[in-house]
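Appendix B, example 12.
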Amino acid sequence: MKRILIIEDDPVIAEVQKDYLLAHSFEVDMAERGDLGLEMALQSSYDLILLDLMLPSMDGYEVCRRIREASNVPILIVSAKKEEIDKIRGFGLGADDYILKPFGLGELVARVKAHLSRYERLVGQGEWRRDELRLNGIRIEKQSRRVFVNEKEVPFTAKEYDLLLFLVTHPNRVFRKEDLFERIWGMDAIGSDHATVTVHISKLREKIERDPSKPQYVETIWGVGYRFNI
């Protein structure tokens, strides 16, 4: 049975979410404060987290950031904050989805099931191994630094490989160009270094995407950065 953690300070909303999820055979825990929700998320094993943003003690943004530092568990923000900047910030901190209040309970459960299924494709069925990563038609052999697309080996430069491996091992998170440059090239991004990241992202798409003009994996999040979808 899948375990879900609801971090929500409104007891009426939390109970409605819980009852509906229980009716669909999920196991559910609840936390009414941000700090308590964070503690539960880090100390217990959950398959998915539903997270409000306006929480006492610690807001949902900080909770999301700190959970994401320790885990790739799916995080679905459920909030009445509807401004685009709120959504961008949530995705930038690693949220997998953003659901506006008021919401339909059927839609909530559908999104929960979709994200659980997507996450399982990566880690729940033996696809994520220490020395080999598999994702749909992509296979990465970490020890030999070889990449196969639809079982055909595709050559990668050292930095292209490093960028691909970083994105694949941090799925569904949005990274700014500055962050990617610092992580992959090992220095602060300045000036035209943005172009370096852009060029390498373009090269990745040419090598792993079925249609680079309509990328399935490496998605541009306009005004923020890039996200690797699973």
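The radius of gyration is 19 Å. Residues 105-124 form the longest helix (20 residues).
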